[in-house]
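Design review, sub-item: ligand-bound model
Attendees: FS, YL, KQ
YL presented the inputs for the adenosine-5'-triphosphate complex:
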Amino acid sequence: MGKIGKEKFKTFGDVFDNFTLANLVSLSQKGCFLEGTLSTGKIGKEANIFFAENEQGERVCLKVYRLETANFNRMYEYIRSDPRFIGVLHRRRKVIFAWVQREFRNLLIAADAKMSAPKPIKFLSNILVMSYIGGKDEPAPMLKDAPPKNPEAFFQKTIENMKALFQKGYTHGDLSRFNILNHRERPVLIDFSHATMNTNPLFNELLERDAKNIALDFWQYGVKTSKEDILKFIKS
Ligand SMILES: Nc1ncnc2c1ncn2[C@@H]1O[C@H](COP(=O)(O)OP(=O)(O)OP(=O)(O)O)[C@@H](O)[C@H]1O
Ligand SMILES: [Mg+2]
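KQ shared the predicted structure:
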């Protein structure tokens, strides 16, 4: 690992643990982004969002899953030397890595379905790199913070995206105005970590929940729709 590289990321202070730092250096060495361009985006429930630029001057978005909560860190310090608990950390990390891989693969499916969603670029352990959605100055706002000017048209585009994904045999699984960005009055679906396929026993439940959430959200924007209408459209 390049010493210089690590130094540059040090400006992020305590944000990254050494493992994440090493992965960031590796991703930037692979050309995913330029180290000096990394900037802080949002802090999510389990992941932190960062923005950066690549050599071509294109913006990218990095979703960095936190490996350990502060509490877990302290617990781990106490438990790591206990021979009965070797492997606890390892197992926990494996789940996180699988989660990142699933999100990446789901974004590939979204791209294949020609959905309006970030393009997957790369993943490594706890980090997912995807295309950036937004303008020169600011990332696109969440739909919940930027209600559509034309709710009917925005709604139509949203359910067309849901249908495209359904036709590939998938559903988003966590769809709502929190995971839709309003990018220049067009929906961009994000946060595909929950998306799953129709052979999953939970598929129908997730599909119905997606349809219900979208119906409720757009009802608030004045669109006369229902969960049933949405499901009918998706399945037609
Ligand atoms: N590709 C992107 N371009 C611009 N902004 C993004 C992009 N991906 C995510 N964001 C911003 O970061 C926020 C959090 O992202 P996301 O919804 O994927 O994570 P999360 O809700 O923290 O994830 P999880 O539910 O898995 O904990 C989004 O609401 C959005 O504002
Ligand atoms: Mg989200």
